[in-house]
Structure formats: C-alpha cells, structure tokens
Amino acid sequence: MFVSFFILRSYAAEDKCRDLQVEILDSAALHYVSPADVYGYIEEYDLDPCGKPLSQIDTEKMERTLRLNGVLGSVECYKKAGGIVCVEVTQRVPVMRVMANGGNYYVDTEGRRMVARAQYRAHLPLVTGCVDSVMTYSDLLPLARYIYNDSFWNAQIEQIYVNERHEIELIPRVGRQTILLGSAQDYEAKLDNLMQVYRQVFNQTGWSMYDTVSLKFKDQVVCTRRKKW
To answer: Where is the Cell division protein FtsQ/DivIB C-terminal domain (predicted)?
Structure first.
C-alpha cells in the first residue's frame, strides 16, 4: 500500500495545467472588467499556468499579484481535477467619475481611485470644477455614494459641480435648473427637501419654470423663477 501511494503522488506531482478558467462573479451587475481583461493581466504579470506542473503553480502568489492591479476586488485562485486552474474575481465598484484639474478617473465605494476605462459606461455622477485641496473628491464621496445607491437620484443627478467658491451644484438630467447644494453637510436632508419640491411643486408647475433651486440653508428650499417664463 505504501509503494502504491508513493507512485500516485509522484504522478500527480508531474501532472501539468491543461486549462485556465476565469470567472467574473459579479458580471451580471457590473461590467467594468471582462474575462479577457483578467487573462490579459495574467499574461502581463507572467502568471499563465498552462503547461506548467501543477506542483509548481503558486495560486496564492497569483492572488496577491492580481490584487495589485487596482481594478479587481477579491481574487481567488485554485486548482481542480483535470489539470485546471480557476481564477474567480469580483470587481471594484465605481460610484463617481472625476474630471477636474486635468484628472480623469473613477472613485470606488471605498474612496480609492480607479482608471477611467473608455469601454466602461455607467450612470455615475460626474464630478467637475474646483476639486482640489479645499474640496477633495474624498469630501464628495459620501454624497456621490448616496446618489449612486439611490435609484431615483442616480437616474436624476448627472453632474456634481464644485464652483469657484467651493460650493456644490448639482446638474439634473431632467429639468433645466441648477440645484445649489452649498456644502456637503446634511446632503441627505437637503435631497429629501428637494424631493418634496419635486412632488408638491414641480409636478404642478412643470420642470422648467425655475432657473435655480437653492438647498443651501437648513430646512429651506428657495426657487428662483426663470426669466421670460
């Protein structure tokens, strides 16, 4: 029995990887990364296991290296019967895109920058204007995350603009008015107030009567009528 066991182990140690399988576990909800991208990262980092003895394939090293690319979320690599190496990944979730001060990048739910990919399209708030040391993208992250996670606001708010006074203006997809949010403080209460205006006023008067809607002051909504209305 001992000799037989030794022979089987020796044979298994010489078995080679016959195939590499990549799966994006959250591909139904997000399309930032494709399996082809992951195959490309594996080749770029010289991690392709195909043709190598299974005993020499370090799946933990593959995981550590793939996580360094700044695009993938979780990474799990393992071997299974038939000489197959599997790579299962999830994607980082972008919640806003910043195009300001010469920069062009996404920011994920944890506040980390992500490369802006031309092939990626999503309804995300676009952040523009004076994003600098006074008003950083980190200051805007809670607001952007709230908008992204709310189905109505994610569909309605197209742009977060930081003006020269470092006040926040929101540009809607529906309606021609500028929404003056002011600071990022109490953004949830301010948007709740705006929702009441939408329901109680705009649904009666139409969405184009007012030029600006100011939410800058606590528990107040000030609408300025458009000229020549």
So the answer is: 100-201
